[in-house]
Amino acid sequence: MFSGVLKKMISEFGNEIVYYLDFENEFLIMNQFLDKKMKLIFNGYECLNCKSDEIIFRQGYCKKCFYDLPITGDWIMKPELSKAHLNIEDRNLEYEKKIQIQPHIIYLAVSSHLKVGVTRKSQLTTRWIDQGAHQAISLAEAPNRFIAGVCEVELKSYYSDKTNWRKMLENNFEQLDLKKEKDMALKKIPEKIYSQLIPKKDDPLTINFPVVKTPEKVKSLNIIKENNFEGTLKGIKGQYLIFEDNSVFNIRSNEGLIITIK
Ligand SMILES: [Zn+2]
Questions:
Q1: Which DSSP string corresponds to 135-172?
Q2: Ligand 1 mean position, distance from CA 24 (Å)
Q3: What is the pLDDT of residues 116-151, one digit of tens each?
């Protein structure tokens, strides 16, 4: 039996992705539970910042922390709103400079359909794994989050920036030649932005998730409502646990919940 506060799983790239759950006192290799019966029990809330037992508002934080912390500023979801490169503070300039003023990658990924995204260069593979992308390719490197964000906004007129999580989990994805898609995408970036980027030469990356049985019609598990759940783990993909009865549990959207795993 293990108990702890949910935080998004840590992943390790390899022939098959290995997932870890950091439960403070325990560091669980999640792949070991594949094909085994698991019980999840909901035991309350603990804000990932202030540790209060207030209801979790978003991203693992209570409402107060969510609106206070620099890590949940609007520029996280909308990189084009980044202003640290202009020395303009949103919530904490020092923090924002550290995160925003570093190389970012604009990429194409296929988890359900082709989508465009932006992430810190240091986070690239992790980002793709978290999305459950089967394949992904870097387009270009930008010197900071703002330029990457502006480039993404341009490309959003051609590509989606969202993943259809049901299709992703059901392995229902488009077959595409990502090298070709990349060449086409680069041509769509306006010169004014393109001149500030370094085009990337990397090949597409293929990601293999530890899934022994692909679910058919997935249903989202609401552990707060159900209070507990029992099922046989059949896969882990993106940040989802996939069970034999087609229930799927999104660890990321349940951050800050105190959970017992049996
Ligand atoms: Zn809090």
A1: EEEEEEEESSHHHHHHHHHHHTTTSB----HHHHHTT-
A2: 18
A3: 999 999 999 999 999 999 999 999 999 999 999 999
Residue 54 CA from chain centroid, whole number:
24
**Residue finishing a domain among 206, 227, 251:** 206
Q: What is the pLDDT of residues 145-201, one digit of tens each?
A: 999 999 999 999 999 888 899 999 999 888 899 999 999 999 999 999 999 999 999
Domain that holds residue 83: 73-206
Residue 64 Cα to ligand 1 midpoint, Å, equals: 6
Number of domains composing the chain: 2
Note whether 116 and 94 are same-domain residues: yes
Q: How far is the CA of 141 from the centre of ligand 1 (A)?
A: 34
Q: Do 48 and 108 have their domain in common?
A: no
User: HSE of 245 in the Cβ direction (CA atoms, 13 Å)?
Assistant: 10
Q: Which tens digits make up the pLDDT trace of 26-53?
A: 899 999 999 999 999 999 999 999 999 9
Do 80 and 200 lie in a common domain? yes
